[in-house]
Structures are given as structure tokens and as C-alpha cells.
Amino acid sequence: MSMQNNKARYATAHWIRFPGIVTPDQLALSEYPTECVSWKIGPDGPVGPNGYRLPSNIWCGVALFGDLSAAEEALETKEHYLPCLADAVESWHALLLPIAHRGECNHIELSNPGPELDLARVIDFRVHVDRVHDWLKTVEGRLASQVFTPYTVGDDGVTMSVWRSDTVMIGSMYRPGTHRTQIDRYKSEKTADRTSFTRFRVLRTSGRWGGTDPMEITGGNVT
Questions:
Q1: How large is the angle between the packed helices 178-189 and 119-136, nearest 10 degrees?
Q2: How far does CA 199 lie from the centroid of its chain?
Q3: Number of domains forming the structure of the chain
Q4: I need a labelling partner for 11 at 20 to 30 A (CA). Which of 122, 148, 215, 222 fits?
Q5: What torsion, rounded to 10 degrees, do the Cα atoms 63, 67, 71, 73 define?
Q6: Residues contacting residue 101 through CB under 8 Å, at least 6 positions apart
Q7: Residue 129 belongs to what domain range?
């Protein structure tokens, strides 16, 4: 499989739930989606003492692509690079079109890794990510959400959320509240080397999460 160094214009998201906790050595993780720009996969477990997430029964992945045909193929042939789907209780997969992006993430370019690792700072940031995610699960209009940190060393973590509408998402995430508090804390204390967000439109989905496709609840958008 090849991983092309092109600008990302499409993405696929993959959420996988197993019957029990699994570790990287129990999964076949050597394959990539064909012609992807980037492929990151990891667990959603709590933050461990080394700053990485502990093994979990939920693993998530994000692939980035330079063209639509490669992204569509990845959605259709996901069993090729995710043979672990055969052991999953359920999984959900989405083809995504980015419509807005701001900030910096190191999933494509590793030229600016940031200052020397401060483990306490990493743990603090990810613990607060989990607190925000716990709050997010209670927010009206949020349809589904997941966090994960790639199991590979040095890659930025990811939070994904599906919303009833852009208006609901903006009102929940950027007005006074739990998430806004962490944004302000980041700005004042520089709690991370870099942050970013990308807003997507969902082009197509397959599978179920929590027994249903979040997009069937209402016309959701992934951020």
C-alpha cells in the first residue's frame, strides 16, 4: 500500500467497537488505505501514565486523501486494511468532505513537532479533552462523538463529533461553557503546542454506532 504526500481534500472516519479490550499487538495494523495522504488509528481509552491512551474496546481511525475516488475506494474496501472488522460488535464509517479548517495538526507534516516533550503537559491536556468529551455527551444536538489518540508515537490526538446542525454545534462549542473554558485556558496558558479543527460535510456512511447510523437520526455534520 502507498501513502501519498498530497494535500488532503477528503477523509474517511472509522469507529470500531470490539466485544472486549484489545491492544495494538492483537490487531493487524500494518496496512493502509490505498493512496491515502495519512492514516491514523488508535484507542479511546483513558490517558495512561505515558500520555498515550490505554487499550480499549473502542478503536477509531481517520484517513486523509487527495482525491475523491481514493476516499470512496477506502470506504468500500475497508476490510482490506481493517481485517479486525470481522471481530467487531459494530462499526461506523463515513466519507467526509472538509469545508473549513484552521490551525495545525501533525498527521501529514511532521516538520514542526513542537518543543521537547513535557509529559505532564501532555497528560493534563488529554485529561481535559476527556472532561470536555464527557460534557459533550450531555449536550442537546450532539448526535455522536469519539476521541482517540493514534497508537503510533508522536501523533496528535483526535476528537470527532456529529451534530444536528452547524448552528447547534457553534452554540454549544464556542459560547460560554465547558469547551469554551478550555479554549480560553489554552490561549492563556498555552496548554498545547498546536491545535486545529476541521469541519466536514458527510457524503456517505455505512454501519451502525450505538445500534444506529447517527446520520439517520437527522442530517448531521461531522466536526
A1: 160
A2: 12
A3: 1
A4: 122
A5: -140
A6: 196, 197, 198, 199
A7: 10-222
